[in-house]
Amino acid sequence: MQSKSQQLHIPKGIRFSCSECGNCCLQWPVPATTDDFERIESARSKLGGDFPASRDLFRVLNAADSKLSVFSHSLEKRADGKCAFLSEENRCVLHEKVGPEAKPAMCRLFPYTFTGTPDGVFCSVSFASTATLFNQGDLLEQQGELLEQKHDLFSNLFPQLNLDWSYAQVVDGVPLQWSVYREHEAPVLTCLEQESARRADALLFEKTEAFRKLVPPEVNLDNMADFEARPKLIDQVLIKHLLRFYVPVDVFGETSMDFQARAVLEEVIRGSEKVEIIWNSKAIGFGQIFSCDFSDFSDECRDLIRRFLYLRVFSKLYFGPGFNYLSVVAGFHHLITVAVLARLCLKLDLISGLLTREELATQKAFLRMAEHLRCIERRLTVADFSEETIAMLEILLASPRRIERLISLSA
Asked: Is residue 353 part of a domain?
């Protein structure tokens, strides 16, 4: 019988089947095990064509992180950013000519993710995947056997990944028992499971109130550090820097995995009179953002954000060991802010001329939103926040009033 800690939980209403778009085979190197390396090397005779020598395809890794010690090599990309095994038709040559098991384990695992908890393993799929973005393919609920196989693969790749949820906190310094967390999480998930005409980030903010009520009354969430700076200035500087981190000009070329907390605090302390965001080579002020009407935001874009938030909450990839050890309240508020950023990206597209008002409710706007969210997902995946960054986010994102203002900013 399967133990409670190994029970597999599957999200509702989420679909994925490979769309064969080739997007997951672009730009970023793929970590590979020694078995991957040897298997691909022995399969070279079956591939045909003029493939480079293995020393040109793979780079030897020396992973400092013990959780990554299973990976001995990195499958690098060609000069054009594509995998060497990707054909002109965007098909994996290893898959077609040797078989799916010939591919590196990480390629076979993508886009499935698994989060171990005291209540079992929660599975999800990455929004870096095109099919996930479009919610295409078979329901995950109908893929039980496949998900078990993918989880076995995940467990073999990360045998040391034992997440300890006993240090979960409501806010910094206020512990939270797992059973209490799960009790309060249930209505949040029920809310996000269902399609709604309302904004999912606003709904999530309302549901987070149950967790905020667990905070001792003497804790002032709206000003935990006694900041004297204008609250709206902090909002604007925070959004400006979060956009730089989560939606960089070149997501593949960006090497920083830590949010620059010190730069935020320095700009707040300077007390800038005007904060601007550079978008499409244009300087855009927050007055323009506030005054831009966004009532034509499409149902497809709204549902895309709902699914994103639902999966992040379901898979616990927003707080504690699931995400850089943020507290639950800061984690929820960070997640809401990320959804605000996705909406803001589309608003900035409109203001800067990348979209017209007529295109806002069309497929073009949805595709742009999908690419913005794909970029954000990739950055969330690699984010490795320092203690300084976590401390700043705990303080700035604890404030319910700030989150309400940010939600209104992207309205």
From this structure: yes
Give CA separation, 30 vs 16, 103, 149, 382, in Å: 21, 11, 20, 13
Evaluate whether residue 201 is within a structural domain: yes
CA–CA gap between residue 123 and residue 147 (Å, rounded): 8
For the stretch 270-311, pLDDT in tens is 877 789 999 999 999 999 999 998 877 889 999 999 999 999
Is residue 233 domain-shared with residue 131, that is, in the same domain? no
Q: Are 203 and 192 in contact (CB under 8 A)?
A: yes
Range of the domain at 300: 169-409
Q: For residues 182 and 322, what is the distance between their CA atoms, to the nearest angstrom?
A: 15
Q: Give the number of other CB atoms < 10 A from CB of residue 179.
A: 9
pTM passes above 0.85: yes
Last residue of some domain: 112, 131, 157?
Answer: 157
Contact indicator for 6, 151 with CB cutoff of 8 Å: no
Report the C-alpha dihedral over residues 231, 232, 234, 238, rounded to 10 degrees.
140
Among the candidates 131, 157, 183, a domain finishes at: 157
Both tokens of residue 348? 């900035």
What are the tens digits of pLDDT across the range 134-157? 999 999 999 999 999 999 999 989
Q: What is the mean pLDDT of the chain?
A: 90
- Report the DSSP beta bridge partners of residue 26: 82
In a domain, 163, yes or no: no
Domain match, 258 and 330 both: yes
| 38 burial level (CB within 10 Å; 0-12, 13-18, 19+) | middle
